[in-house]
Write a sequence for this structure.
């Protein structure tokens, strides 16, 4: 039972390490690596075919879920740290000027 917990925890750690640094395409080699390690470890411990297949699938799923969670958390931090474009000053006026000054008329008006 501890083998299952160790494999799932290691798989989740792989997803957590890949998440903030790489894009989604890095999940393919990471999942292949997790699948190979999981299949090898379960074969060395004489676990049956169906049990090791289920454990390998669970490890790949744990990797991808951890990647998704850390990516969403990282994306949320990036989105909330940027100031918004529709900033309102303290006097409740926007930063957009009300000037109607056009130095160059639109091209359809120029003849």
């Amino acid at each position: 039972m501890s083998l299952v917990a160790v494999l799932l925890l290691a798989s989740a750690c792989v997803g957590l390490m890949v998440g903030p640094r790489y894009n989604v395409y890095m999940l393919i080699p990471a999942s292949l690596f997790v699948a190979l390690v999981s299949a090898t470890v379960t074969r060395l411990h004489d676990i049956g075919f169906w049990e090791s297949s289920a454990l390998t699938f669970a490890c790949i799923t744990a990797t991808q879920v951890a990647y998704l969670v850390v990516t969403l958390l990282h994306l949320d931090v990036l989105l909330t740290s940027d100031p918004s474009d529709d900033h309102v000053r303290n006097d409740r006026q926007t930063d957009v000027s009300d000037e109607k000054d056009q130095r160059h008329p639109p091209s359809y008006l120029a003849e």
